Amino acid sequence: GGQILRNSTALSVLLEIPIQVEKIRAGRSQGGLRPQHLTGIQLLAQLSEAKLHNGNIGATEIFFTPKTIRGGNYLADTKTAG
Fold it and tell me: Which domain holds residue 13?
């Protein structure tokens, strides 16, 4: 689900460990990444200079490789109620 995705990418950034997340929101009527999930992952990618592979709406698997956290001001808008 979305919570596992958010937690795993955040821990990946903090620990500087690359991750692969599979079966994202599997079993849901609209499985895969939704706009709010993708926005959160993109924000984490920006602040850690990460490489995000397969980061698009509907993706059921991502590869996330963070680098060092950069301080700064960041803005994210999901453009949804999520």
Answer: 3-65
Integer Cα distance of 51 and 80 in angstroms: 24
Name the residue among 80, 79, 18, 81 with its Cα closest to residue 44. 18
- Asked, for residue 24, whether it belongs to a domain, the answer is yes
Establish if 75 belongs to a structural domain: no
**Alpha-carbon gap, residue 10 to 2, rounded angstroms:** 12
pTM for the predicted model, two decimal places: 0.88
Q: For residue 70, is it within any domain?
A: no
Which pLDDT tens digit goes with each residue over 22-80? 999 998 988 899 999 999 999 999 999 999 999 999 999 999 999 999 999 988 887 77
The C-alpha atoms of residue 69 and residue 48 are separated, in whole angstroms, by: 4
Answer yes or no: is 13 within a domain: yes
Spatial distance between the Cα atoms of 23 and 29, rounded to a whole number of angstroms: 13
